[in-house]
Amino acid sequence: DHDFFVVTVPGEQAAFSTDLSWLPDADQIAFSFRDSGHGVRAVYRDGHLVELVVFDEKDLPLGKVNRYRVLLDRSQIASQVASMVARTAMEASINQASDESLLGEFLTNLMVGAARYWRGERLSGHIFVKSYATEQLVQLLARHVPAERRGLLDNLAPTRRFDLVYPELADRLDVAANRPAPEAASQLLDLAEEALGPRLPAFPTDHFAVAKHYLSNGGEQHGDL
After folding, report:
1. What gap in Å lies between CA 83 and CA 88, rounded to an integer?
2. Alpha-carbon Rg for the chain in angstroms
3. Is 219 exposed, middle or buried (0-12, 13-18, 19+ CB in 10 A)?
4. Is 184 exposed, middle or buried (0-12, 13-18, 19+ CB in 10 A)?
5. What is d(CA 72, CA 79) in angstroms, rounded to the nearest whole number?
6. φ/ψ (deg, to 5) at 144
7. pLDDT tens readout for residues 179-221
8. 3-state DSSP call for residue 56?
9. Are 154 and 66 in contact (CB under 8 A)?
10. pTM beyond 0.90, yes or no
11. Residue 14 CB burial class (10 angstroms; 0-12, 13-18, ≥19)
12. In what order do the strands lie in the sheet with 29-34?
């Protein structure tokens, strides 16, 4: 797929986002739709996905970006995008959740997900364990586990390229993702304890013990959470 920004003079954004005939091979576009105030997605018949965001110069600072190339610049766009990258990195750093918050959400999402699975809400259970809790664990692992290729990680999407930077951890996460939600929750709990326990001075051992007991005992036979 291709992701890109189009920067127009004021008043021309609508023309570029509503009429896509200017895109290459536009006659091969199978469907398109607006996915945000400035964003459009178009899917070609061969499956190629194009994700574009149309800004005018005054709206460009609204964007977030961490990797870029400027292919055409008629108005000092490159310098503005460079500033966007710096601001994006600063905001990502400032807005990071604390370890305490991420660990708390991770543990409670594992428990809630398992409980919902046990009482028959399997779809919701999978989402809590394999989406919410997994993403929180990925953020913690990326923050605290050393790796040679950390520069590949994406500060806007924690799971992007995680597999390239932490292949062994990613393999274990993948195995967990293919198990029933309660079993996956136990595997994620074990992984977090092994990888983070030695690296966090204030690792919440007691909190993990509570979650482990709950998961090991079927939520005290499917207790409500």
Report:
1. 9
2. 22
3. buried
4. buried
5. 13
6. -120, -15
7. 999 999 999 999 999 999 999 989 999 999 999 999 998 866 5
8. strand
9. yes
10. no
11. exposed
12. 2-8, 49-56, 39-44, 29-34
